[in-house]
Amino acid sequence: MKNLFRFTILFVLFLGVSACGSSQADSDPVAVLEALEAAHNAKDPDGVAALYAEDGYEVNGEGKFTGPEEIRELYARVVNVFTLDCNNYVVNGNNVTYECILTIDNIRAGERYEAVVENGKIKSNVLTETFTP
Questions:
Q1: Beta-carbon contacts of residue 23 (< 8 Å; ≥ 6 apart)
Q2: DSSP codes of every residue in 76-91
Q3: Closest of 85, 90, 89, 65 to residue 76, by C-alpha
Q4: For the stretch 49-81, what's the b/e string if a residue is b when 16 or more beta carbons lie within 10 angstroms of its beta carbon?
Q5: For residues 39 and 23, what is the distance between their CA atoms, to the nearest angstrom?
Q6: Which domains does the chain have, with CATH numbers?
Q7: Which of 12, 77, 120, 125 is 20 to 30 A from 102 via CA?
Q8: CA geometry: angle at 129 spanning 85 and 99, to 5°?
Q9: How far is it, in rounded angstroms, from Cα 78 to Cα 19?
Q10: Positive or negative, the Cα torsion across 4, 6, 8, 10?
Q11: In the chain, how many H helices and how many E strands?
């Protein structure tokens, strides 16, 4: 009986620690942006849209898209056109600058972004410049 009690206490503590760890990962701005890249490359526009806040927006070469539904529609059009390889993340609180290489039929283009991630959701993701990789 004593061993069962100890096991139960250890199990509850383990669950508590696990829950804390996943919460941190969900709110890590880089992890959220890496999930965006992964969803795009998996051709999952619903997965991309789920990463945006209800009032979140993206500004890119095609325009400004606000809210998960507009963002889902955008990514539904582009996920089959190019792949993303993002890196050089610089984090300052909830603000992140990063760059992505877009590959379209062996042609590569570079884009730099500034993003704001709050509570595990993208509030804004704005193209700031293009470059030649």
A1: none
A2: HHHTTT-EEEEEEEEE
A3: 65
A4: bebbbeebbbbeeeeebeebebbbebbeebbee
A5: 20
A6: 26-131 (3.10.450.50)
A7: 120
A8: 25
A9: 35
A10: negative
A11: 4, 6
Instruction: Calculate ∠ Cα 102-85-126, nearest 5°.
Output: 70
pLDDT at 13 over 90: no
Residue at token pair 């300052």: 92
Q: What are the CB-based long-range contacts (under 8 Å, 24+) for 46-49?
A: 46/72, 48/72, 48/75, 48/79, 49/75
What CA–CA distances, in Å, run from 36 to 7, 52, 74, 79, 100?
39, 9, 13, 11, 12
CA distance 11 to 34: 31
Take residue 129 and report the two structure tokens written for it.
């410049």
pLDDT tens digits for range 74-129: 999 999 999 999 999 999 999 999 999 999 999 999 999 999 999 999 999 999 99
User: Residue 17: pLDDT above 50?
Assistant: no
| Contact between residue 104 and residue 80 where contact means Cβ atoms under 8 Å apart | no
The residue assigned the tokens 């877009």 is: 102
